[in-house]
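Backbones bend. Shown next:

***
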Amino acid sequence: MAEHRSMQRAALLDAARSLLSEGGTEALTFPALAERTGLARSSVYEYFRSRAAVVEELCAVDFPLWAADVSAAMERAGSAEGKVEAYVRQQLALVGDRRHRAVVAISASELDAGAREKIRAAHGGLVAMIVEALAEMGHAEPRLAAMLLQGVVDAAVRRIELGAAEDPSVITEAAVSMALRGVSG
């Protein structure tokens, strides 16, 4: 019975990812989840009490996987600058991944305070990954620099997600240049 519930929960989360990546937060409804999974609508409520609960679970499951991808890319880099470049490139490479599209859709939605705090904490963990590399590069305020760097990444993500006129590779190169050389690069 526990294995069946676990499989149903996973199917619901997978359906939620698809709905979010296809249609944004408006598409994430309990009737749509029920239709995608073949469950009765009332059964969906047995797994999640609200849309916010679905969002919280997605963040709890998906964000660590995304962060692990970024961390692994940074570990392969041989220098502090290489780690910064990997941090930016890997996050932007994940833009096409539906886990990422779901997280972006989630972050744009109207969430309760608990869900917002969990997302903030997860992003804080991502930013914390780059602080040491920025300190090695000589930044006087590496934590502040990390937060600003994440702002550059977030802006590049939004630009790619919006289907900007520039090719995603151009946006990625501009973000890497900004991260390593500031506006002079």
The mean pLDDT is 86. The two ends are 58 Å apart (CA to CA). The CA atoms of residues 63 and 127 lie 13 Å apart.
